[in-house]
């Protein structure tokens, strides 16, 4: 990988990792659902007027937008608001890699290889450690929401695969049109008009910085950069770089928010990171399933 592209990869993963504690700054005042609605409104507008619509069916845009905005980021923000440390959230969301492998087996007839199976077992142990460490101090509901968001992200990965979209940046911009209205309705149903009437006074300083970072950094810039890397290099060379995201997320949460994990929590995090690293290694497929129709297997990548 060229030096300039390696620098871009580090920048993208650093911004994605930083996004978790910086999102926490915005959640200190703004309702989680409303903050998510604002994020995707600004990610879509006014960009849909200058970015050409990707050549995919409308249903893929709508489906991915609702999963990406409502079923993924709204759940992450809600989980962080309920007390899940942003560093832990940045790590748990990476479990989507293993959920994606599962969908590959169920929907595409793919086979797991030995490293992936070992990675799944290690991730399960690490997740158990996170749950044990968080009992009594972290909302179980919050942890469940973040894990559910990882499941949603894996479904979004499958939708992207099935849509065969090539223009990822345009896809994200146009898909961002769909989450705001459901999120605004959910905000109203959950809390009435209070979050909306309080919003003008909340849009200052840290909250504006947090919102701008989520929109222009973590959404628009990062997806452009990641798509550029995927276009220039094999997915197998780019995908392992996502392991840097939780590292940046955990370290930045320590430095920005002062949230230091316990010994058990740190061990569990390291175990999940090890699981992700092992699962990303190539290996001989286990004699499990065959792809439907006897066709050639494809690796389902995030």
Helix residue percentage = over 70%
Q: What are the secondary-structure elements, in order, as H or E?
A: HHHHHHHHHHHHHH
Main beta sheet, described?
none
Radius of gyration from CA coordinates = 19 Å
* Global structural class: mainly alpha
Quaternary organisation: single chain
Which descriptor suits the 3D outline?
globular
Mean pLDDT: 81
DSSP, total strands? 0
Low-pLDDT sequence parts: 288-302
Q: Provide the number of structural domains.
A: 1
Count the helices. How many?
14
Report the end-to-end length measured between terminal Cα atoms: 19 Å
How big a fraction of the residues is strand?
under 5%
Throw out a few tags for this protein.
302 residues, mainly alpha, 14 helices, 73% helix, 0% strand
Question: Outline of this structure?
Answer:
With 302 residues, the chain is mainly α. Helices cover 73% and strands 0% of the residues. Helix 1 packs across helix 4, helix 1 packs antiparallel against helix 11 and helix 1 packs across helix 13.
